[in-house]
Amino acid sequence: MKKIVLTTASLFFLATNLVANDYYATVNGDKITKQDINLLIQDPRVDFNQLPDEMKKQIIDGAINRKLLAKNALDSGVEKDAEYIDAMNRIKEDVALQVWQKQKVDSIKFTDKEKKEFYNKKKEKFIIPENFEARHILVDSEKDAKDVVKELDKAVNKEAKFKELAKAKSKDGAGQNEGYLGKFSANDMVPDFSNAIKALKKGTYSKTPVKTEFGYHVIFLIDKTPSKELSYDEVKDNIERIMKSEKLNKDIEQLVSDLRKKAKIVIK
Q1: If you write DSSP's letter for every residue of 162-196 in order, what string do you get?
Q2: CA–CA separation, 149 vs 134, rounded Å?
Q3: What 3-state DSSP class applies to 23?
Q4: Spacing of C-alpha 192 from chain mean position
Q5: For 52-97, how does the pLDDT look when each residue is reduced to its tens digit (9 = 90+)?
Q6: Against a cut of 0.85, is the pTM above it?
Q7: Cα separation of 169 and 152, whole Å?
Q8: Which of 92, 189, 219, 236 could make an SS bond with 206 (beta carbons 3.0 to 4.6 A apart)?
């Protein structure tokens, strides 16, 4: 059975859309709220308050027009239409479920002792993995990779030479960026690549070509950040959210199971 999960996104929806205290204008006494503005922007990453004044004005004007048109639609008697009634019934179910879920989340409480016990049992979940910053040169053959290593061995400034060779010889897209791969954890890479980079010291390169499904790599390690175990104080807020989510999901699974036993379900 597919799990019913209360996501952070749905909690965010409840927090920002079911309660809208801020408003920017009124239309015949009705407020233009943050919810009205968000419906027009349709991108949670955009902060309305940080937009240029002219753009803010356009959005508010759009929200006013929408409010006027919606009121006109209601005045036209659309509420009596069967399609409208059916749509409203579906919306009522969604909102009812979201409000009920939020009430359940708010009712779940854990003591500091319980949260610390959870942390101590699952410390492995609260570890920032070892991170690497690197460049690589990817070629088709082992001979080509060995030739790259020979050129690096002769160079005085190894990293500068590596960048030059990456642009000239690497066959993947990173080559045009001097072979730069950015920052990543070992798990982000295929195993042979990960094992090779773990063995390197900062400022060194792989003397033996590394073979993967993509070809042969020569790797230059720019920097390495050791793994870090986060303390309880650093993650206690996240722990409470995780515990609430796990408890709610477990309760909902049981409730769904009980409800299905009592329900008359017909699948066509």
Answers
A1: HHHHHHHH--SGGGGGTTEEEEEEGGGS-HHHHHH
A2: 16
A3: strand
A4: 27
A5: 999 999 999 999 999 999 999 999 999 999 999 999 988 999 999 9
A6: no
A7: 13
A8: 219
